[in-house]
Design brief:
Blueprint: E1 11-16, E2 22-31, E3 34-37, E4 49-53, E5 58-70, E6 79-91, H1 95-111
Antiparallel strand pairs: 1-2, 1-4, 2-3, 3-6, 4-5, 5-6
Length: 119
């Protein structure tokens, strides 16, 4: 069965809280200053960020201005309509580099002659 929002192009998004924690991932229809989120179970508040990865590898970021929940109405399923403001497009930093650096530093600390580790 085809749902109403399936006819529109949807982007995979992350919802990021103001403190940097990830609230969740879902799909959204982003059109100018509005994001329509068909998933009615997401948690999203003003001040959050919506991030989507673009095909060129960069990440587009939006600030959540006003998230409004809409109840199911006949054939229209429950959803969020979110007023957003585009913050910009940024390079997505690979997490693997940070992990590699941390692993290397940990090995240095463990093998350092002044380090005493008890197991």
């Amino acid at each position: 069965m085809v749902k109403m929002f399936d006819h529109f192009p949807q982007s995979e998004i992350q919802i990021v809280a103001a403190d940097g924690s990830i609230r969740g991932s879902t799909k959204a229809i982003i059109d100018g200053a509005t994001a329509t989120i068909p998933n009615a179970t997401v948690v999203i508040v003003a001040g959050d960020e919506i991030r989507r990865k673009l095909p060129n590898g960069t990440e587009e970021t939006f600030e959540v201005i006003d998230p409004v929940f809409h109840e199911k109405l006949r054939v229209i399923p429950a959803h969020f309509q979110v007023k957003i403001r585009r913050k910009g497009t940024f390079r997505r930093a690979p997490a693997v580099i940070l992990l590699s650096i941390l692993r290397a530093r940990t090995r240095e600390l463990i093998s350092h002659p002044m380090t005493c580790l008890e197991t």
